[in-house]
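User: Quick one: structure for sequence A, then sequence B.

Assistant: Sequence A:
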Amino acid sequence: MIEVVVPINRCISELTNGINDGINCWGDGKDLYMDINKKDILLIDPSEMIIIHKQSIPSIRIWGVGRENSRDFAYVAKDKDRMKNIYKCHVFRCDNTSARIIANTLRDVCKNLMIERGLLAATKESSTDEISGQKRPTSFPESIENELTHVSFPTPMEEQKKHVPCKYLGCIYVEKPGGIHILRPAIEKVSQTVPEDKWISVTVNISPTSIIVSSDDDTKEQLLDCRIRYLSFLGVGQDNNFCGIIIHCADNSFKCHVFYCQPSCVQLCKNIEAACKLRYQKCLDAHPQVIRPVEQTKSYGAQIKSLVESFWFGNK
């Protein structure tokens, strides 16, 4: 655990950097069972089946899934053992499941807690307003419909997703974040190195926030989970059946992931391009900027004359 307020991805990267992914018990951590109920996260020692840590869900400030490995999960919560406002980032690695399942479970629990709090507040408010002048009822009402059941809760909207079937060849490190002269040699190297019988049939799920590559077999294993914001380049190889994307990794390196599509990679690339454009538009909408009109104090002839003078004689 890290006792400073830093981004979750940086915490995960610092704890996993240089550690062999094949080791289940990494860093100073140990094997645990995680149990999530309606109010708490319980960490249980599997050998003795005792609770070694209990974290109240309302005390959790933020949680997230690792960028490099979809089995990494972390949450930030206030340290209850200290008087000062010190927060700890708790980092975990799941054995046989994706950390996104834990994140979605926490989201659902928080949603239910907010609903319960809204119902409780509405109940108190209605009882305070109506307690005076009321008599004890002597019979059941004809309609037993509770108005509180109609309390609306803003549920999150599901993002539009595109599902493109293709084959995933693998990935390779590249030196720079972009450029067709960087992408195409990487695609060529991966396509020639990995035999065709090792290509994995996958489904690429594309949304305005992420690109998720999952295998088409019964396991539905996630091979890649990348946020759109970390996509640095996209392009097609010399053969238009191959395409690649370059991802900016947490350790400031760059990976090129290679795909094979039939009859071509045009549909896959267009869907990813559309997701990038939509993501960019959302960023513009979230951070609007006022465009100030430029005052033209000089005529165009005077501006050209000033430009020529500064080029030949330097700035005065």
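Sequence B:
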Amino acid sequence: MTGNYSTSAVVSLFSIDAGLNDGSRAGCICNQRTVLDIVWSCLSTLFLCTWASIHPNAPDPAEEDWKAIWRRFKIMYASLMAPELALTWAVRQFLGARKIFRMHKRPGRNWTMNHAQFLQMGGFHLRSGRHKGVVGPDKFNDLLQRGNMAFPNILKKEIQDKSKADGLSKLILVTQTLWFVIQCIGRHAQGLALAQLEVATLAVISSTFMLSVLWWHKPLDVFYPIYLDNAVVSSMQVISDERGVQTTGCARQTLRE
């Protein structure tokens, strides 16, 4: 009984709902679709959309490459099983990056949303000193306020160069997605049914599209950070910190410059 039920469920997923023998109605065998055609079309679209839309945070420089790739596959799986979680994550990062951008944008500063997203994803590291390591948004603000770090003068192109997303990969993604969507729209316009797998794929496509928009300025697949030098901290600052004495306003001004 269970085996028959499972078989009928699979058949209904691809055959009855999808109208595999649509060609028989029209009297043309060229319009027939197979289960393999539907599965290949949906799975290839799902993989391309999720792979290109997921923008993981920057890994630790000491982390092995295979671990970072495996972490990305786990995020992809989670986004397929619960797309709303990935969307929530992307919305929070977009709002956080916009806040960071507005906080540090000043006339004469080379600061964009790309910089804000790169900072938020853990792309900036301090090379040495007692603040060595990842520079997150809170630590970034604290170091600037204390005068322990000069504001980084990093070009937007330097951050974009870290991203693995190029024009060809985006073109392939857009072409594959548009082809799938147009195919589904065409079948609906002709009064033909869609498989449940195709409907689910359309839902995932809409989700990944919103992810791509929210993460548009976030670099893709950053494996190595940009190091910030805190050499602006003078020996006077180090001695003052060791003695527990606050740095004078004059010294702080010098450090900020």
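The two ends are 78 Å apart (CA to CA). Residues 1-19, 23-30, 231-257 have pLDDT under 50 and may be disordered.

User: Thanks, that's what I needed.
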